[in-house]
Automatic annotation (TrEMBL):
It comes from the Bacteria. Pfam families: Methyltransf_23. InterPro entries: SAM-dependent_MTases_sf. This is Methyltransferase family protein. CDD domains: AdoMet_MTases.
Length: 279
């Protein structure tokens, strides 16, 4: 993936430097997702059918296609995301292999094919109907296939996009933190981003899956340990966290105390790493 990223950066520096900051953020996320999925991907056959839900600018989808997977990428288009669309077109143009692209919402997706694996990273909290998206992806899985996603758990009183504490509900959090939300801290469209958040929780996911007898649910408890380490080892990621948070995490990691967070029940963790297997 590194060579692919370097090629795109060179292109942007020469022809579209205004997209470089956005690309650097998306490249960091794509590299993290590639590492996060590596063990799952290694267990798949080389030509496995893979579904990415919310592909962003298609960096990871293109890399997986170059790796030999048959990739389908779901990515809706919308007003206000012109930079994402332009950058996505550049990534697709420079990629040696392209995924099949479905421009629709995940909760509206229907597939004739069946997939060996599906995933999303930091997407499920932005979907209008996460239960509908889970159901549609489940319908598209082969027996034994896995749908895995990573997203915030809003039972934990913290909103990671705005780096703010939360207070029970989304509406109350907005009233209390209104000034911080409106200023956005460098977010291009803070109002649009806030509206997109669905306040998904571990308890909701359990309820969604309980209504589908074809799915078996599992949460990965130790991903939070990895994320704490990432806050110190990934500078671009750290720059999007509050200074006080990094100050707390640093001594935890130094003295290996962060490994204890893997013992915290998933319902109380700030993130959820969800794995649903089609029976």
């Amino acid at each position: 993936m590194d060579a692919f990223i370097v090629r795109i950066r060179s292109y942007l520096d020469e022809r579209a430097p205004q997209l470089r900051t956005l690309f650097d953020t998306m490249a960091t996320e794509a590299k993290f997702a590639y590492s996060w999925l590596s063990e799952d991907l290694a267990r798949l056959p080389g030509n496995a059918a893979v579904l990415e839900v919310g592909a962003g600018v298609f960096l990871l989808s293109c890399q997986l296609a170059a790796d030999g997977f048959a990739v389908t990428a779901i990515e809706p288009t919308g007003v206000g995301f012109e930079d994402f669309e332009q950058l996505g077109n550049i990534v697709l143009e420079l990629s040696s292999e392209r995924p099949s692209i479905e421009h629709c919402k995940a909760e509206n997706y229907t597939a004739d094919a069946r997939f060996d694996y599906a995933f999303s990273l930091n997407v499920m909290e932005h979907i209008d109907s996460p239960d509908g998206a889970i159901a549609r992806v489940s319908d598209a899985l082969k027996p034994g296939a896995v749908h895995r996603f990573l997203c915030p758990n809003y039972i934990f009183p913290y909103e990671p996009h705005f780096n703010i504490p939360t207070f029970l509900t989304k509406n109350l959090s907005r009233r209390v933190m209104r000034r911080r939300i409106e200023t956005g801290g460098g977010i291009a469209d803070p109002h649009g981003l806030w509206r997109s958040l669905n306040w998904i929780t571990v308890l909701q996911v359990r309820r969604f899956v309980a209504s589908d007898s074809t799915l078996e649910l599992r949460f990965q408890r130790t991903t939070l340990v990895w994320m704490l380490e990432r806050a110190l080892n990934d500078q671009e990621f750290a720059n999007r966290r509050s200074g006080w948070m990094i100050a707390v995490i640093r001594p935890m990691v130094r003295f290996r105390l962060h490994r204890l967070v893997g013992c915290i029940p998933v319902v109380l963790q700030p993130i959820m790493d969800v794995q649903m297997t089609k029976k």
